[in-house]
Amino acid sequence: MNFCIALYIGLFTVATTKHVVVNWDISHITVNRDDYNLRRAIGVNGKLPIPPVEATVGDTLELNVHNGLDRPTTIHAHGLFQTNNTHMDGPAMITQCGIPPGDSFTYHYTLEQAGSMWLHGHLAHEISDGLRAAFIIHDKPGAELYHYDKDYLLTFEDWFSTEFADRMYHTINPKEEFPPPKSYAYGLVNGVNGNITQTLNFEPGKTYRIRLVNMGDINSFQFSLPGHEMYVIEADGEYSVPYFTDGIDIGPAQRYSVLIKAHDTDAFNYYFNATMHANFISASPGLSPRVYTGKIEYSANAPYQDTRAFYERPDFKWLNDIEMHSASGHPAMVPNRKLHLEIGNNLYNTGQHLDHINNITFVMPNVPTLFTALSMGSLAMDPRVYGPQTNAVVLKYGDIVELTINNFSTLLHPFHRHGGTFQITEYGPAGSSTPAPESFQNITVQKSKGSPMRRDTISLTEFSYVKVVFQATAAVNFFHCHNSIHSAMGMDMVFIEGPDVLQKTLQIPNAMYEMCHKQGIPTTGNAAGNIGFDFTGLPNVPTIVKQTGDNQ
Description:
Structural class: mainly beta
Distance between the termini: 43 Å
Strand content: 35-45%
Mean pLDDT: 93
Shape: globular
Largest sheet: 8 strands, mixed
């Protein structure tokens, strides 16, 4: 299938102004999103789902946030590079203090890249309770890499019957069994029960871009459109060389765009499939996996094509992102620094099972990490000042870093790098002195060829490793598992990139300091708010009793 550059005519309304203003009043609401459960959730302007935010490359976006909750909140623009703007990235106690209850704060973004992004809460895992919305940045008219006639958006969410805090309590309470009983979510497509989502209308001969955004908490979604050829052109805001596939397994926080050429006739209508699943939840009829279908309509009078045989083909092809190639054509970067990470779960002396990276379970510092980087002078280059539990790694500006991440557990982990993307260069079996279970011993080494695909969220499968490469900028970038339970259990770390450059180039707005002072949070000093290596006041570090490997 050939694709060429052409003028884009979008289904979306593209902003014509250069300054886009969006107002969010965040509050608790009571809502029934899945057609089964009425529950408390977090909405914006009194509603869920939150409408997509749209803008164009070159625009500036002003996101005015009022916190109507009874606790602090923050917003992360997932996928934005945040060049010279790391203080607007959003993770609480990494780049800012939370917005206090009843207060307001404005995020300013200069939009340098096109792609399918999203916005979500980044404190107390409010993302899980509804604080999430698609964020679409369109190419400038005439600058589109591929031709398409219309642009559709499908967002995917898993929706639980209880709030995140309740699920987390049962996960880390040492008096309860671990892992806790499984929770079965319902799947939402474009904010509603996945089986009643709006029909996508196709016209014969036209080409459609469908954006697929998994805003889910812990579940993946398998997407396919039987009866059509599907070419992937984007992963996580990075354009790719068109890549043919029959199906895409979209991990939490991942995004794709596909191009689909409509048939030349309207003789049949079709169904797309979105199957929600999680590998750590055993199959149970009607509960896991959950299968959702939506309509592709060519004609109101046409019958629907029977496509059951499509899934039974021996040559059915699932997307493998290491086979993809970046449309930029950039070759693999040669690292000058290599880091080795091992992830898993341990039993601690608190009686809790907590997650870790390299046996360090993340705990928030008393001072936002960015503020420590800006206030500690030459000591900012020493990772010790960021505290023993932030799992901080200091990188020099311009370092090319290769991360090897080993997953020794039976669970998938979607790892996300804030503030930029990485090249995917290799997958393989996790190296361990303990052999993997027999069902995982057929994992082979796969290496990228040509121009490696770039993205910001990688799905690291069971008993496997991945190698990714990125270049350090001047920023403080969070790196964590995007499964909310795993992140809350401590599977997080921080890259402090070029802190000496940050000190010379970044000016924090006074409003950000004032938010901290209002809550009694120090804004200078090491992780504890002290000078040098005095960490008096930091929480006690739990000690490992047993390395257990698997987590929830």
